[in-house]
Hints:
Blueprint: H1 2-75
Amino acid sequence: MFVEDNLATSNDVSEDNLATSNDVSEDNLATSNDVSEDNLATSNDVSEDNLATSNDVSEDNLATSNDVCRRQSLYF
């Protein structure tokens, strides 16, 4: 009985350590993936913001140009 108890305890400790090691690895992997996704999201957001700003400026300039043309045609 004593040998079996020690063996059971030894196996339990090994399984606990293995579980802990796996959990830490999965946590680190999850954190690494989250950081990558966050950085990618930020990069995409910045690109979309810059694209939106560029489009807005182009539309504003186009509107201004059209307004000037219309105003000039009214004078002629």
